[in-house]
Design brief:
- The relative contact order is 0.25.
- With about 120 residues, the protein is α+β, with helices and mostly antiparallel strands.
- The chain has a six-stranded mixed beta sheet, covered by helices on one side.
- Helices cover about 25% and strands about 25% of the residues.
- Helix 1 (about 45-60) packs parallel to helix 2.
- It is globular.
- The two termini are about 15 Å apart.
- It contains two helices and six strands; from the N terminus they run E-E-E-H-E-H-E-E.
């Protein structure tokens, strides 16, 4: 297993890591829309979806992968009413249309509106 740790994505806020590469596959931890610079979170679902995608992208790149090689994502929304706006941003990043699950959850860390995790080929 190869540990992934990059300053281009937020550090873990709990007992976990940003990701691992195992047998040519990278597994990212869920990425909330926190800035890797100062931990700030933008307002609104579109801006938060963009930052979450950027954080996933940074971890994939640190692992030697990229967004077109994503096999599967799992997306978490605090409000399914944000589904359409989230999808609009998400579609601009995950152009290869990986397999995906998207669920609404009761709450997310730091009160954010979305979180994304990914599995990709290296």
């Amino acid at each position: 297993m190869k540990l992934i740790d990059t300053k281009n994505a937020p550090g873990a806020i709990g007992p976990y890591v940003q990701g691992y590469v195992v047998n040519g596959i990278v597994y990212t931890s869920g990425q909330i829309p926190a800035s890797p610079v100062d931990g700030s979170v933008p307002e609104g679902i579109a801006a938060q979806a963009k930052q979450s995608c950027e954080n996933v992208k940074a971890i994939l790149e640190a692992a030697g992968s990229d967004l077109p090689r994503v096999i599967k994502t799992t997306c978490f929304l605090a409000d399914m009413g944000d589904f359409a706006a989230f999808n609009e941003v998400y579609a601009g990043y995950f152009t290869g249309k990986p397999a995906r699950s998207c669920v609404a959850v009761k709450a997310l860390p730091k009160g954010v509106l979305c979180e994304i995790e990914a599995i990709a080929e290296v």
